[in-house]
């Protein structure tokens, strides 16, 4: 089960933080198993486990609770030659007006399949409908039981619920694998123990996904300082006035990653493939859009779609360095129209504050656009000395409505609203042939106090990019956890 739990965590099906459910309840965990359908192997595996969990039940048909469990029920049906029924959510307004599709005999037994159970109300709704059609429903299987009274409630109604996973088992395993902190486990356990039956599944997991729409991300979270983590990303999300900073910290916290992929590849297909494959592991994807051999506006549209799907920010590493009037056109115009699609961009502070004015003007006052100033560089013999660095930080302070932090190799600002992005990161220290110098995630995050590791060739040159990105993500996150807990 460990592997399954890890996979669910990695694809973002389980998120930890403070989530306000529609019912008003604050949950320390958010479960979105819908994303499983994007991973066919996992879908098949999960369906087999559901089928195995039903081994003691007797049934001649299966019926998935709409919608996430529909494909799971379909997989069980096809793999084990068990006829399937579909429960409609609304009756058709034409034709037969049937609420249950598929062939069944009166008094035949049907197994209900569900992805997640909280209070059990969705399973019960399906069971009641099937019962109205004289179909016997005494058994249900679920992938994840949130342990909030659903099993008991269903038992009272004559339905025996078997689960593949329980929430407590999930968090305990994730903690053992160093994916979440012990405090999160305790919070979830406390939440489960409070056994709040007022949580309605239809009101929570099934009806909204806080991070799906970029615009709704901020509004769906709690900013009351409900939980602080001693200067950690969550607390800083609460403190942050800039929408992009807040979003970034929230993403980092919910996906438990401080990895920014530097997708320095030259083909659009490679860029999109990287973003889609590694999207679940990163908080941001950094592009050099002008190195694509085959750039077309479609690429950035697709990249934005992928960013929405996997909940990461896009950072075009344009390193603007000209006068305000010129960068204005470079940012919003030309072939790339960067301000249309990139959440974050960066600029040298060398020209003075005019460059920020120009970029800000080009962004048209959009609150979801932000800039990092280059305070330090990762290359040997670079010219950014302490005076330059301090002047850059001052400039950032003066333009907090657009500048959210720095490209740097150390923590240059004490302002918790400033984000520190550090390039030149590999799992082992070293350098390349052209002056690039590498630090480890541990050094960058734990010792130097930076926030985000930017990793390019450490991942893109690897034969197994997914495995390598996972290693960077784990190393970066472990370093952060150690930093905030020490
Ligand atoms: O000082 C810097 C600033 C940046 S943004 N040093 C850097 O290396 N970068 C960028 O980070 C660089 O342009 C490249 O895209 C990435 C590092 O790539 P890597 O392959 O060396 O990890």
UniProtKB/TrEMBL annotation:
Name of the molecule in the record: Uridine 5'-monophosphate synthase
Q: What is the lineage of its organism?
A: Eukaryota, Metazoa, Chordata, Tunicata, Ascidiacea
HAMAP family in the record: PyrE (MF_01208)
Question: Is Glycosyltransferase there in the keyword field?
Answer: yes
Q: Which organism is it from?
A: Clavelina lepadiformis (Light-bulb sea squirt)
Keyword presence, S-adenosyl-L-methionine: no
Ranges where the Orotidine 5'-phosphate decarboxylase domain occurs:
258-472
Q: In which pathway does it act?
A: Pyrimidine metabolism; UMP biosynthesis via de novo pathway; UMP from orotate: step 2/2; Pyrimidine metabolism; UMP biosynthesis via de novo pathway; UMP from orotate: step 1/2
Q: Which InterPro entries match?
A: Aldolase_TIM, OMPdecase, OMPdecase_AS, OMPdeCOase_dom, OPRT, Or_phspho_trans_dom, PRTase-like, PRTase_dom
Which domain of life does the protein's organism represent?
A: Eukaryota
Q: Which UniProt keywords apply?
A: Decarboxylase, Glycosyltransferase, Lyase, Multifunctional enzyme, Pyrimidine biosynthesis, Transferase
Q: Which family does it belong to?
A: In the C-terminal section; belongs to the OMP decarboxylase family. In the N-terminal section; belongs to the purine/pyrimidine phosphoribosyltransferase family.
EC number, as in UniProt:
2.4.2.10, 4.1.1.23
